[in-house]
Amino acid sequence: MDFKKISFHVLIRMAILVLLLGSLFLIWSFSYDPHKHCEEDMHRHVDGGLGLFIVSFLIILMYCIGLFTEMIYLFIKKRKKIAFANLGILAVLAFIIAAFMFGIS
Prior knowledge:
This protein has 105 residues and is mostly helical. The chain has helices at 3-31, 48-76, 80-104. The chain has 3 helices and no strands.
């Protein structure tokens, strides 16, 4: 396995995650209306940011589960360098999530 093949594998996996989260953001930004339930002077806003956070969390969780499953499959198929590339992606995602968690609190 050369570096070009491994970097291409990593770029494809990261592009998939960016595509999923980007499409979620575009759908949310074009379809979310906070004043949908307002009646005259009664303002009943819904919390769309929380829904966006929950759905993006679920997308990232399913993505990590799929990446972990692919990593196990690659270990079984004896393609260990690409499996370690998947492990590296998971480690970077875990570091980013931990940084956000500690940054928010």
